[in-house]
Specification:
CATH superfamily of one domain in chain A: CO dehydrogenase flavoprotein, C-terminal domain
Mean pLDDT of chain A: 95
CATH topology of one domain in chain A: Enolase-like, domain 1
Oligomer: heterodimer
Number of strands of chain B: 29
CATH topology of the largest domain in chain B: Aldehyde Oxidoreductase, domain 4
Distance between the termini of chain B: 49 Å
Number of helices of chain B: 16
Shape of chain A: globular
Radius of gyration of chain B: 27 Å
Mean pLDDT of chain B: 96
CATH class of the largest domain in chain B: Alpha Beta
CATH architecture of one domain in chain A: 2-Layer Sandwich
Largest interface: A-B, 47 and 52 residues
Number of domains of chain B: 3
Radius of gyration of chain A: 20 Å
CATH class of one domain in chain A: Alpha Beta
Largest sheet of chain B: 7 strands, mixed
Bound molecules: flavin-adenine dinucleotide
Strand content of chain B: 15-25%
C-alpha cells in the first residue's frame, strides 16, 4: 500500500482546508480502503471526516421532508423508524445492500460516492479509462457491461442500491467546498462516462457531501413504494438489475409515479417518459409492462439481445406491481426480494 | 428397523453430541492460527502474482521495489536461492509440481513471479506494486474448448481410473429407451476462510513451521525434501485450520518460497496469501464437461451407464476431477463404463476439493437419472429403487454395509415426497412462485489412510492421548478425544488430547472423509493397548480384586477395570497404578485398512437428498427452500459434529448448484472475480429449511470402530437434487452448473 498521511479534522472548515489534489475523504472506508489495498486508489493523504460534528443527524420535518447528515451510517438510516415509514423504499434499498457489518460501517456520503465494481477497474494492470485515462477499456472485450448510457471509453455500472430510490424521489445533495455551500439535484450528481469516465460525479475537486435532503413531496409515495433487487444469491450481492417504483393512487388511478432502475447503467437510471405513461391509468400488468419497456428504450443496440435487458424490464414491471399492492406494514425479512415470505404453503395445480 | 437417533450407551463418550472442545478458544479468539505466530524479527512476504496466464515476464523494476522504505529483498528467478528439491519433481505421491521462481515463464494467472520481503505487510504490498511487471503475453487457453482432448492415463494421484464392465455400445444400442446428455460444471476455488499461510523460522538447519496443514507428517516430509534436510529437522505446528477443503494437504509454491526466504535472510518470515492469490497456486476444482449415455430395458432396468468426463488440468501437471467415478458403484447397470479425458489449460493445477469427482460427477449423474426417469414416465425415486445395486455393480462385491434403502425411505417420508406430481410446473405457493421437488442419491467412498497414536495413563487416573491429527473446523479435537476416552474407559473430562503438532505420532491425512476412522482407529488401538497392560498388572496383583482373572474377562469403564461377568469385582485405575510404583503406563497403536479387507468389500457412505426450490416465474430467481438429507455413514461418533459436516456439505451443494464459479478474463486468463464479493458461496439467507437425518448403520467390515465418513458426502446428491427440482418447478432442463437466472430466462 502506498504510504499516506492520515488527518482527522475536527471541523468542516479544517477538513476543507486540508484537502489538496491527491487527498481522499474517508467515510466508513468500506470502499476506499479496499481500493487502496488493491492499488486502485492511491491517495497521498487520507482525510477522515467522521470526527466532523453535525453530520450525523437524521431530521424529519413536519412538512414530510427529511435531511440526513452525510456521516449517518447506512444501517442507522434504514433502521430509523420514522424515516423508514416515510421513505420505505429507501430503507429497503439500504437493507438490500452489502451485509450487516458493511452497512454498520458505511456512511451515506460514501455510499453515494462509491466506485463501480467493474472487474477491470479493480485490476490495476488492465486497461481502464476510468482509473487511468486514455489507457482503453478491457470491458469492451466482453461487449461492455452497462446496457444503457455507456460510452466507447467506459461501460462500468453504478453499483449503489441506495441511489436508485434517491433518484426516483428527487433527492438533493448538499455539498460544501472551498467556494462555499451548494445544492446538487440528485439527477445531476452522477455523470455518464462520455469522453471522461475518470470524472464520475459533478462534485468539484475538494467538495464534500455534507447532507442529503428528501423533498416533502417524496413522502406521499409511502403507501405504494417498493425496491426490488435481483441477484443469484439471496443476499450480499450487487444487483444484476434493480428497480425503485413508487405510485400515488387516487380513486383507482395512478396520479403520480416514480420509476428508477439500478444495475444497468453508469448511473442510477430514470426515464420521466416511462413514468408519464402511468399517469391517469389504473394500475395493471399491461401498463406496467409498457412503462417498464419504455424505461429501457434507450438501451444500446448491442444490448438489445442481452438477457439482462429482459430481466431489467421484468424487474421494473414487478417493482411497479409490488408498489401497486401497497407497502408492507413492516419491512420484509428479506428486503428488496421477491421472496418476501419464505414459508409459504405449497399448492398443487 | 433403523433408528434416526443413535442409541444411548451408558458410559460411552462416542455417540454423544459433545460440543467442540476448542469452541470457547475459537469464539474468544484465544485459538492461535498459523498466521497469529509472531516471532521477534519477523519479515513479511508477499508474492507478485502474474497478471497474465501464458507467456514470459520480460521486466521487473527490482531497483524501484527495493528502494521503497521497508523493503528488504526481492526474490526473482534471477536471484532465487538454491532449492535442494527440484520443483519439476514431486516430493511425495500426493503433491504437485510447484512454481518457485524457477524461470521467467508464466503458466497461469496468479503464479508467483517474484516475492517481496519487507518489514511490514504494507511495505511488502507496495514493493510488489512497484515491480510493475512487463510481459511477453501469449493468448491464454482457459476454457475446455481451447485445446484438443487427450485420454487420461489411469493410475496415480490425479489420474482417475477408467472402468468397463460389459459391452456398453451394444447395451446402449439395444436399449428400449436411451439418453445421451452433456452436463458441465464450473471451475471452483476452495476459498477457506483462512487463506494459506506460513510463519517459517530456521535455527541452523532446523526448520520450524507454523503452517495450516491437513496432513502434518506428509507436509514435513515434503518440506524436508525441498530443503534437503532430514525430516526430523522439521517441526510443524498446525493446531487449527480455518478450513482446508483439500487445498491444505499439499505444499504450495508461495509457502516454499517464504521458507526459502527465511533461510537466506536469516530471519523468520510470515506469508499469508491475500484472498486474490487463492485463485491460482493453491489448487481448485477444474471445470468438467460430462457426457452421460443411459439406456433402460422394458422393465426400466438400466442396461447401460456410460459416463465420460472431460476436465481441465494445467499445462505442466495432472489432476483430473475424477467425475466419472461417481457412476461406478451406485446403480445396478448391466454395462458400465467410466472414462476420463483431459485438456491442458493455462491455469494452476487443479487439486482435490471437497468430494473431488463425486461432487461434479454426482451432479451430472443424478440429473441424467432424473431425465431417464422422466422419459420412462417414472417417479425418480421409484426409478432409482428399480436400479438399486445389492452388490457393487460390475464387480459383484458385497457392500460392507449399505442402508441406502432406509435413507431413501426416511428422507422421502420426512420430505413428503409421495405428494410429488410426476410432471413439472404443477406446484405454486401462495405468492405465485413456481415450486419444484427433486432428489438425488448421495455416495462417497469410505477410505482409510495410515495413522499412529500414543496413550498415557497417569497415576492420578487421567490420561494423555496424542496424535498429529488435523482439525479444519470439522471437530477432530472433540470426536477423536471421544474415541480415545472410550478406548481408555474414561470420561472425556479426564482425557487430555494433544494434536496438531508434528512432534506427535503421525495422525495421517484429514482428507477423503477418512480422518475420524483412521486417526480414531489409531487412538482406539493406543488406548486399548494401555488397558491391556493395566489389566495384566491388575490380574497379576494379589492385592487387586481382579487378581487371577484372565485379562480377556476384564473391561474398562468410568476409570475402573472390572470383570465383565462379575461387576462387583472392580478397581479404580489409580489404585492399580499406585501399587505398581505409582508410574504411568504408555501404549501405542496404529490404524490402516488391511488390503484384504479393501478387496473383500465395497465400502461407501450413502444417502438421499430431497430438495424443494421456488422459482420466480418472471425474474427466474431461484431459492432452495427445503433440503432434507438422510445419510448412512456407519457409526456416528458425535451427532452434533456429524450433522454439522452434513449440513456444510449440503450448503456447499447449494453453492455448487447456484453460485460458485470462477470467471476468466478471456484476454489475460485472470480470474475476474477473485474475491469473496465476486466469488459467491451461499449466505445465510440462501439456506432455509435444512434438515439432516442420520440412519443407524452397523458396519463390522469397514474398520474396527465401524466408522465411515461424513465430511464430503453431503455435497453429492444435493447438487443434482436442486437441478432436478428446478426442472420440476419450471419444466426447463438446465445442463450446466451453476444454474443461473440467465439460463432460466432464455426462451
Ligand atoms: C463486499 C461488499 C459488498 C457490497 N455490496 C453492496 C450492495 O449490494 N449494494 C450497495 O449499494 N453497496 C454495496 N457495497 C458498497 C457499500 O455500500 C459501500 O462500500 C459503502 O456505502 C461506502 O461507504 P463508506 O462510508 O464506507 O465509504 P468510503 O469507503 O469511506 O468512501 C467511498 C468513496 O466516497 C468518498 N466519500 C466518502 N464520504 C464522502 C463525502 N461525505 N463526500 C464526498 N465524498 C465522500 C471517498 O473519498 C471514497 O471515494 C458493498 C461493499 C462491499 C465491500
Amino acid at each position: 500500500m502506498k504510504p499516506f498521511d492520515f488527518k482527522q479534522p475536527a471541523t468542516l472548515e479544517q477538513a476543507l482546508t486540508l484537502w489538496h489534489p491527491g487527498a481522499a475523504w474517508l467515510g466508513g472506508g468500506t470502499n476506499l480502503v479496499d481500493l487502496m489495498k488493491i492499488g486502485v486508489a492511491r491517495p497521498d493523504t487520507v482525510i477522515d471526516i467522521t470526527r466532523i460534528p453535525g453530520l450525523s443527524e437524521i431530521d424529519l420535518a413536519d412538512d414530510g421532508s427529511a435531511r440526513i447528515g452525510a456521516l449517518v451510517k447506512n444501517s442507522d438510516l434504514a433502521d430509523h423508524p420514522g424515516f423508514a415509514a416515510r421513505f420505505p423504499m429507501v430503507a429497503e434499498a439500504l437493507l438490500s445492500g452489502a451485509s450487516g457489518q458493511l452497512r454498520n460501517a458505511a456512511t451515506l456520503g460514501g455510499n453515494l460516492m462509491q466506485a463501480p465494481r467493474c472487474p477491470w477497474f479493480q485490476l490495476p494492470e488492465s486497461a481502464c479509462n476510468r482509473r487511468n485515462p486514455g489507457s482503453g477499456c478491457d470491458a469492451r472485450q466482453v461487449g461492455g457491461l452497462a446496457l444503457i448510457g455507456a460510452s466507447e471509453g467506459c461501460s462500468a455500472i453504478h453499483p449503489s442500491d441506495l441511489c436508485v430510490p434517491l433518484l426516483a424521489l428527487d433527492a438533493v445533495v448538499e455539498v460544501a467546498g472551498p467556494d462555499g455551500h451548494r445544492e446538487v439535484p440528485f439527477a445531476t450528481l452522477h455523470r455518464l462516462p462520455g469522453e471522461h469516465p475518470e470524472t464520475a460525479t459533478t462534485l468539484a475537486p475538494g467538495e464534500l457531501i455534507v447532507a442529503l435532503r428528501l423533498p416533502a413531496g417524496a413522502a406521499r409515495f409511502a403507501g405504494h413504494a417498493a425496491y426490488l433487487k435481483v441477484r443469484e444469491r439471496t443476499s450480499f450481492a450487487f444487483a444484476l438489475t434493480s428497480a425503485a417504483a413508487a405510485l400515488e393512487l387516487r380513486d383507482g388511478r395512478i396520479t403520480a409515479a416514480r420509476l428508477a432502475l439500478g444495475g444497468i447503467a453508469p448511473k442510477p437510471w430514470r426515464v420521466p417518459e416511462a413514468e408519464a405513461l402511468l399517469i391517469g391509468q389504473p394500475p395493471g400488468a399491461e401498463v406496467f409492462a409498457r412503462a417498464a419497456a419504455h424505461a429501457l428504450e434507450g438501451a444500446d443496440p448491442a444490448a438489445r439481445k442481452n438477457w439482462r435487458r429482459l430481466l431489467a424490464i421484468r424487474t421494473a414491471q414487478k417493482a411497479l406491481h409490488m408498489a401497486a399492492l401497497g407497502t408492507p406494514e413492516t419491512l420484509p425479512a428479506l428486503p428488496g426480494s421477491v421472496f418476501r415470505s419464505p414459508a409459504q404453503e405449497v399448492s398443487h395445480a | 428397523m433403523p433408528e434416526i437417533a443413535q442409541p444411548f450407551r451408558f458410559g460411552s463418550n462416542a455417540g454423544q453430541p459433545v460440543t467442540r472442545r476448542d469452541g470457547i478458544a475459537k469464539v474468544t479468539g484465544a485459538a492461535a492460527f498459523a498466521a497469529d505466530t509472531a516471532p521477534a524479527g519477523l519479515l513479511h512476504a508477499l508474492c507478485a502474482p502474474a497478471a497474465i496466464a501464458r507467456g514470459r515476464v520480460t521486466h521487473l523494476d527490482i531497483a524501484r521495489a527495493e528502494s521503497h522504505p521497508g523493503v528488504v529483498r526481492v526474490l526473482t528467478p534471477a536471484n532465487r536461492p538454491f532449492l535442494e528439491g527440484d520443483p519439476a519433481e514431486k516430493p511425495t505421491m500426493f503433491s504437485f509440481r510447484i512454481e518457485v521462481l524457477q524461470d521467467d515463464s508464466v503458466r497461469y494467472a496468479g503464479q508467483p513471479i517474484a516475492m517481496v520481503l519487507a518489514e511490514t505487510p504494507e511495505a511488502a504490498a507496495e514493493g510488489v506494486r512497484l515491480l510493475n511487471p512487463q510481459y511477453a503475453a501469449e493468448t491464454p487457453r482457459v476454457t475446455l474448448d481451447e485445446e484438443a482432448a487427450y485420454p487420461v492415463e489411469p493410475g496415480g494421484f490425479g489420474r482417475p481410473a477408467a472402468t468397463l464392465h460389459g459391452d456398453i455400445e451394444a447395451a446402449h444400442g439395444a436399449a428400449t429407451r436411451a439418453l445421451d446428455v452433456t452436463y458441465t460444471t464450473a471451475p471452483q476455488y476452495h476459498n477457506a476462510m483462512e487463506t494459506h499461510a506460513v510463519v517459517a523460522e530456521w535455527t541452523g538447519d532446523r526448520l520450524h513451521l507454523a503452517l495450516p496443514s491437513q496432513a502434518l507428517a506428509m507436509s514435513c516430509a515434503a518440506y524436508a525434501w525441498f530443503f534437503g534436510i532430514p525430516v526430523e529437522n522439521v517441526t510443524l505446528s498446525s493446531p487449527y485450520l480455518g478450513g482446508g477443503f483439500g487445498s491444505k494437504a499439499i505444499p504450495t509454491g508461495p509457502q516454499v518460497l517464504a521458507i526459502l526466504a527465511a533461510r537466506v535472510l536469516g530471519r523468520p518470515v510470515k506469508l499469508m496469501l491475500p484472498r486474490a492469490q487463492m485463485f491460482g497456486p493453491t489448487g481448485h476444482r477444474g471445470a468438467t464437461r460430462q457426457r452421460l449415455r443411459l439406456g433402460i430395458d422394458d422393465d426400466f432396468a438400466l442396461t447401460a451407464l456410460d459416463h465420460d468426463s472431460l476436465s481441465e488440468t494445467s499445462s505442466f501437471d495432472d489432476f483430473h476431477e475424477p467425475a466419472a467415478n461417481a457412476s461406478q458403484g451406485l446403480y445396478a447397470a448391466q454395462a458400465l463404463r467410466s472414462t476420463h479425458r483431459g485438456v491442458r489449460l493455462d491455469v494452476g493445477t487443479p487439486g482435490p476439493m471437497r468430494a473431488p469427482g463425486e461432487a461434479s460427477g454426482s451432479a451430472a449423474l443424478e440429473c441424467a437419472m432424473d431425465e431417464m426417469a422422466e422419459q420412462a414416465g417414472l417417479d425418480p425415486l421409484a426409478f432409482r429403487l428399480l436400479n438399486y445395486a445389492e452388490t457393487e455393480p460390475g464387480t459383484g462385491r458385497p457392500y460392507s454395509s449399505k442402508a441406502l434403502r432406509d435413507c431413501y425411505r426416511l428422507g422421502a417420508e420426512r420430505f413428503g415426497w409421495a405428494h410429488r406430481p410426476l410432471t413439472p410446473r404443477q406446484m405454486r405457493d401462495a405468492e405465485g412462485m413456481l415450486v419444484g421437488w427433486g432428489m438425488g442419491t448421495a455416495l462417497f467412498p469410505a477410505p482409510m489412510f495410515q495413522a499412529q497414536a500414543r496413550a498415557t495413563l497417569n497415576p492420578d487416573g487421567t490420561a494423555l492421548v496424542e496424535t498429529a491429527a488435523a482439525d479444519m473446523g470439522q471437530g477432530a479435537w472433540t470426536a477423536l478425544a471421544q474415541i480415545a476416552a472410550d478406548a481408555l474407559g474414561l470420561p472425556l473430562e479426564k482425557v487430555t488430547f494433544h494434536s496438531g503438532h508434528s512432534s506427535l505420532p503421525d495422525g495421517g491425512v484429514a482428507g477423503g472423509s477418512g480422518h475420524t476412522a483412521t486417526a480414531g482407529g489409531a487412538l482406539h488401538a493406543a488406548g486399548t493397548d494401555v488397558i491391556r497392560q493395566l489389566a495384566e498388572i491388575a490380574t497379576a496383583d494379589p492385592a487387586s480384586p481382579l487378581h487371577g482373572a484372565g485379562n480377556a474377562r476384564v473391561a474398562a469403564r468410568d476409570g475402573q477395570l472390572f470383570l465383565v461377568d462379575d461387576e462387583t469385582r472392580a478397581e479404580a485405575f489409580e489404585a492399580i497404578l499406585a501399587r505398581h510404583g505409582g508410574q504411568s503406563l504408555t501404549g501405542g497403536g496404529s490404524a490402516a485398512r488391511p488390503p484384504e479387507d479393501a478387496q473383500r468389500h465395497a465400502m461407501s457412505s450413502h444417502g438421499a437428498v430431497f430438495a424443494e426450490v421456488k422459482v420466480d416465474p418472471e425474474l427466474c430467481q431461484v431459492r432452495v427452500t427445503r433440503l432434507v438429507g438422510a445419510f448412512a455413514a456407519g457409526r456416528i461418533i458425535n451427532p452434533r459434529l456429524a450433522d454439522s459436516q452434513l449440513y456444510g456439505g449440503m450448503i456447499w451443494g447449494i453453492g455448487m448448484a447456484l453460485h460458485e464459479e470462477a470467471h476468466h478474463d478471456p484476454r489475460t486468463g485472470r480470474v475476474l472475480n477473485a474475491d469473496l464479493a465476486g466469488y459467491h458461496v451461499p449466505v445465510n439467507a440462501d439456506v432455509t429449511g435444512l434438515e439432516v437425518l442420520t440412519v443407524h448403520e452397523e458396519d463390522p467390515h469397514v474398520n474396527i470402530l465401524g466408522i465411515k465418513g461424513v465430511g464430503e458426502i453431503g455435497v453429492t446428491g444435493t447438487v443434482g437434487a436442486i437441478g432436478n427440482a428446478i426442472w420440476h418447478a419450471t419444466g426447463k432442463r438446465i445442463r450446466r452448473f451453476p444454474i443461473r437466472i440467465e439460463d432460466l430466462l432464455a426462451e
